[in-house]
Structure formats: structure tokens, C-alpha cells
Amino acid sequence: MTSDLLTKSNYYLENGSNLGKQDIVSLQEILREHNRLYYNEESPVITDEEYDRLFKILKKLEEKYGINYEESATSKIDVLVSNQFQKAVHIYPMISLDNTYDSEDILDFEKRILNILKKEMELPYVIELKFDWLGVSLTYKNWKLIKALTRGNGIEWEDITINAMQIKSIPREIPFKIEEEIEVRWEVVMPILAFENLNKQRLEAGEKLFANPRNAASWSLRQLDYNVTKSRNLEFFAYSFPYLEKWWNVGNDGNRSLPEFQKSFSYFNELQFLKSLGFQVSPYFFEAKNIGEIVNEIKRLWENKPKFAFEIDGLVIKLNDLSLWQTLGTTEHHPRYAIAYKFPATNVRTTVLDIEHSVGRTGIITPIAHLKPVNVSWVVVSKATLHNYDELHKKDVRIWDEVFIVRAGEVIPEVISVITEARSWKEKMLDIPTNCPSCNTVLQKDTGKVAWYCPNKKLCPAQTLGSFVLFVSKIWANIDGMGDKIIELFIEKWYITDFASIYNLEKFKDEILALEGFETKKTQNLFDAISNSRNMNLANFFVALGIPQVGKKTGKILANYVISLTRHPERSVAESKDLLFEILTSLNPQDLQEIKDIGPVWAHNIVYYFEEYKEPVIALLKEINIILPVKPNSNITFNSQIANKSFCVTGSFSEISRDEIHKIIEQNWWETRTSVSKNLDFLIAGENAWSKLQKATEFWVKILSLDEFKKMI
Q: Which residues participate in NAD(+) binding (predicted)?
């Protein structure tokens, strides 16, 4: 039973340093069962990091007591071949990689190599992406694809030839015309966007969600109906041409000559050779002269975190000299010439301790899972969003459930799936609340919408607090030192009642100084921060107000529109600012809907806000200075051909930071974006521009150097 498996796994994870010989057999059985769930069922109940820890615990015990059991999980991948596919045998065994989460182990990896070689020398390496996906070998004969096999237990696995032929990135034929069979090895991946869309479809259909893209890709590739595979948008990346030197003379004597550079037989050149045959290879690889360059590159990659269209969990480090591969050989489990460096896990297992009904600043009620604290990508996570009650019930998340959570990028963690096999049936289901947890107002739900919300916009304490928190945040008013707790206290004391009142806080100076924790310096710093926030960009002003669905992009569009109404060659800046009062309170939805990217919902929200909150907005505008980018005597020239354009910045620049470039873009009322798509207008590329540069080329996005960008402003 899975719950027993988890109980035993947790015991060994918590007591790894206090185990003895008597625990070896039990650990072997546990790892075999985890292998079955991972490879055969695509339903892992522990994370990769937890599995690796159990693996190393068992390996140390076997080494300590001199046990060499060939059926152990440390010696072979104990995976059953599915009966739904024909069994087949690999030409050459496909084995796993040894791995580490510690860069110090990489230095030990080289020491082991040098000990085997019995010499001191500087060794060259290649780094490539570690996908940790489903391994596949493709066999070609007479330059045509004849067979595709999954990795399985390394020797034997399933024949998935028909399914593999549905993948666009797999060549049916290659320009390497030899009669004998040759093998090329791949990893099959599912792009993150395809994974999210697939899980969305399954959620709507009430089907079980996939825990991660790897499991979704494996399931999609191993379907009896090849049309399922065809519809999944899978990608393949080639990484190996086993025993390439065997085909050297054959290739040169055949209809295709191997490239001259291949005679050196380096792994880097092997990848280039695979590309020349039409195979898709990793979008990133790096040649290093020595192990020191490897460690520095890993650090650089982790700090810069280049984004790819698919999920990776680390890097693979391989000796570049292929002649040393045969000298070093392999163990039954992994090659001695390669090691995987794994990034900290972003997908981890934990327990739901409680589920809170959280009220947001717009009144929407969101279920938030309170979790047993876990470390995710070096961040301790104790909460995760469940988005809405429809998703909560479709995923069937309950209090005391074992769940997988994910933290992608810098977003709030979310619960992605429940380990239902681990249930003890003591878990508690959650009902949808009928009243607002903050003000007790009866909740409402609009027809066709999934969100329940509190309609008490002006008097709900939670919504009031959320509005103030948004307004003072760093990216909008930027009032440093005014956190959630301080705002909550000031609301309770009636020191602040609307946004304008923030700028009159000094009249409560004596009362604030009398509060616990408010010494003179801290209080003065707060007043200084408030004073410094009086100058506000108009687009930021619109977003800071908290108008529903008005984010950064819509704020800029609205600001451009309002500014166009205030511009007049005979009107002064002061007169333009005075006109803002009139414009904002006389907006109508018909005019707004004529603006590109402003739909009826946005138009309604904007007009409603300035009608409903007319007095507070006027009061706020009297307290702050709105920065208008164009004055009659301005040196800035607006080019109509590049108005309303979008920019993305990537790479590094020696003379200016990316933040400074973003500020220039925003000052010119252009849009900044964080990702590349076919709708992007310009990519500003510096040094070491990675995937974004490649993606921009694929989408035919215009690429600018820094000098070219300067000419535009």
C-alpha cells in the first residue's frame, strides 16, 4: 500500500545516518517500488531529490557492509516492460547517470577519473542541459528510421516506433547512407506550455492531473493510439551517437563523408555532427577547458537562470575526449565519464495542515493551503494557492492530504496534485464558505465565472488592507517601510482612511512615536519615504489605484490615452494637470473601447471606478505630482512609427543595466515584456543572450543592439 511505502520512505529519510545492515533489504524493496511507480505508472509519490537521497543511503550501506547484490536498485533499473508494447533489446545498454546536488562533488568526480587514469592532467568537459525525461533510442538502417525503443531497464524495453514517427522533430531519414544499423539516443520532452494546456484540459474533464511534464510526456508517448502521441506537441533532443568511431570509415566510404572536425572524436563535435544530420540537440551546451570553468559556469547559470520552453532539472557534465570514455568504462548503473548536477527541486512533496479562505483586495475568495514547511529552490514554503473552489474540488485537495507543490520562477507556490494513494481516509474535505471571512457579507458568484467574491468593496477590512498594500508597494508608490502590519495598525487607529490620508500621516507623529517599535529614526524614515513618493508616473498611478483588471500594460495604454487628451501646444503643464480631474471623471466606456486592447470589461471597470471613487481620487491628486512625459519644451521626440511597441531585454550590457533600459522604455511609454512571443516587436540583446535570442529568431522578432536601441529614443 502506498501509504505504507511513504511511511517507510520517510523513516529512512529521517534516520539515514542511524541505519544498519538489517535495513538494506527493506531499502532495496522500497526503491524498487518507487521505480515501478515512476517508470511504469507515471505516478511518483516522492520527489526526485527524495529518491536520490534514499538511493545514496542504500549505496553507502551496501559499500559499508561489502554487499554487492546485482539485483539491487543501485546496480540496475528494475523496471517492468509493459505488456501493451512489443519487447525489444537495445543495441547498446542505456544506463543512468550518477548525480549530485553539491558542486564540491564535481571536484571529487574529476579526482575519481584521474585516479583511474593514474595521471595528473587538465581534462576538458562539456556541459549540456539535463532534461530528466523519457530516454529513447532510435535505430536507422539504410538511412531510414526502423525502430524506436524506450530506455526501460537499460537493456530491454518497449518498441514505440509508430508513436515516435508522429513526432515532428524526429527525422524519418538521415543523410548517412550505410547499410548497417546505427543508433541515436534522445530525450523526449513536453514544452511547459503544452503541459499546462494538457492539465487544463484534464482538469475540465475531471481527469487526474499529471504531477509534472516528464510524466505527461512519458504517458503521451506510450499510448496504443498513436494519434494521442501526435496531438501532444512533444519534442526530442538528441544527445548521443553510440560508438560513432565504429562508423568512421564506413561513413567516409559511403555516400556521405563525415565532417573533417569529427576526426578529433570530441563529444562537442559529436553534438555538432548530430546537428549536421538533421537532429535537434540541446539549445545550450558549453565547452570547458578544465573543471574550474565547469564550476564557474554552473554558478553563472544558476545566478542568471536562463529560461527555456521546457523544464530542466540540472546540467550534465561529460568528458569531452571520447577516447577516454572507453578507458573509463561504466559501472552497472552509470558511466564513469559523466555526472549530473541537479538544481534544487521546484516540485516537492508535503502535507496540507489547513486550508484558509483568503480575501483578496478585489474581494475574490481564494483557498490557500497551509503546508508543512518544505524547502523549494532554497526557499522555505509554508503556503500554496489552490486558485479557486472549482479547482480545489476537481483536484480533491483535503486537509491532511499528501500533495505535490511547485514553485516556478518567483510566483506563489501552488498545489499541483494529490497523492491519493497515501490517504488514510482521515483527511477532511472543505466546504465553500457562504459568508466573507473578513466582514461576514454574503458571498456572490457571477454567472459563468468560477470565483466567489465579497461585494462589500468599501467596508470589507481585508479588501481595504489589500488596496493599501498594493498602493504603497515598491513597483507603484514605493513607500519603503510601510508593510502589511504597519498598514493594518494605521487603519485600526484611523490614521489612514484613503490613499490621500497617507500623505498627511505626519499630523499623527506624536501618536505614532508613542506606539511600540516606532523609534524616532524609523518614524522619520517612513515620513521621508512617503514624501519621496509624491512624484508618480501616470501609468503607475492608474495601477496603484487597484482598478480591477488594470495591470501594468492596461495602465500604460490608459495613460497614453489620457495624455493625448491633455496635450495642446498652448496648454501649460499645470493646466494639463488640472485637466486630469475633468478627464478622469468624465471618461465613458464607448470612447475607451475604441482604444486597442481595451475591451468592454476593462472599460466598464475604469469608468465605474472613477465614478464610484471620485472624491478619494481628487483628494489623492491634490497630494501627489503626476509626471507627464511630454511637455511643450521637452527634448523627447515621440516617433509615431514606434508608438505602443513592445520590448524585451536579454543578456548583459557593460555600460548600462537592464533595469535602466527598462526605465528608458517605460519613460517613452513603450511596453516592457519578460518573455519572447510572436507578438513581441523588439528584442534588445546584450552579451550571453541565451534562449530568448534563439526564440526571437524563430518568431522573426526584430533584434536590436544597444546602439540601435539608443537611436530610437
A: 48-52, 96-97, 128, 151, 187, 318, 342
Chain-wide mean pLDDT for the chain?
81
Cell numbers placing 414 = 501552488
- Cα angle 297-301-307, degrees, rounded to a multiple of 5: 150
Whether 188 and 124 have beta carbons less than 8 Å apart is answered as no
Phi, psi of 210 (to 5 degrees): -80, 140
Grid cell in block for residue 671: 511596453
Domain 461-533 has CATH 1.10.150.20: yes
Strands 87-89 and 156-158: antiparallel
Chain segment 405-424, per-residue pLDDT in tens: 887 544 568 888 888 888 88
Annotated binding site for Zn(2+): 436, 439, 454, 460
Spatial separation of the C-alpha atoms in residues 286 and 291, rounded to whole Å: 12
Chosen CATH of 537-627 out of 3.40.50.10860, 3.30.930.10, 2.130.10.10, 1.10.150.20:
1.10.150.20
Scan for cell 515584456, then name that residue.
Answer: 673
Amino acid occupying residue 482: M
**Sheet bearing 314-319, strands edge to edge:** 99-100, 338-342, 314-319, 125-130, 285-288
Is 56 among the residues known to form the active site?
A: no
Measured CA to CA, the distance from residue 182 to residue 62 in angstroms comes to 37
Active-site entry in 87, 118, 130, 596: 130
Tens digit of each residue's pLDDT (9 = 90 or more) over 679-688: 888 999 887 7
The grid coordinates of residue 519 equal: 523609534
Compute the Cα dihedral for 395, 401, 404, 407 and give only its sign.
positive
Q: Which residues are annotated as a binding site for NAD(+)?
A: 48-52, 96-97, 128, 151, 187, 318, 342
Q: What's the CATH code, domain 87-342?
A: 3.30.470.30
- Of 153, 183, 168, which is closest to residue 32 (Cα–Cα)? 153
* Contact call for residues 353 and 372 (beta carbons, < 8 A): yes
Q: CA-CA distance, 24 to 79, in Å (whole number)?
A: 19
What's the pTM value of the predicted model, to 2 decimals?
A: 0.55
In terms of Cα–Cα distance, which of 241, 273, 243 is closest to 257?
273
CATH number of 2-64: 1.10.287
Q: Is the predicted pLDDT of residue 492 greater than 90, yes or no? A: yes
Distance CA 36, CA 47 (A): 14
DSSP readout, 399-437? Answer: BT-EEEEE--TTSPPEEEEE-GGG--S--B--PPPSB-T
What is the torsion angle, in degrees rounded to the nearest 10, for the CA atoms of residue 372, residue 376, residue 379 and residue 380? Answer: 10
- Which cell goes with 461? 477590512
The DSSP annotation for 346-359 comes to: SEEEEEEEEEEEEE
Count helices and strands (H / E) in the chain: 27, 24
- 640-712 topology per CATH: Rossmann fold (3.40.50)
Do the domains 2-64 and 347-429 sit in the same CATH topology, yes or no? no
pLDDT at position 416 is 84
Q: Name residue, grid cell 553563472.
A: 300
Cell numbers representing residue 257 in the block: 563523408
Per DSSP (E only), the strands in 423-497 are 444-445, 452-453
- Binding-site members are 48-52, 96-97, 128, 151, 187, 318, 342, 436, 439, 454, 460
Going from N- to C-terminal start, the domains of the chain cover: 2-64, 87-342, 347-429, 461-533, 537-627, 640-712
- The fold adopted by the segment(s) 347-429 is OB fold (Dihydrolipoamide Acetyltransferase, E2P) (2.40.50)
Residue 251 has pLDDT above 50, yes or no: no
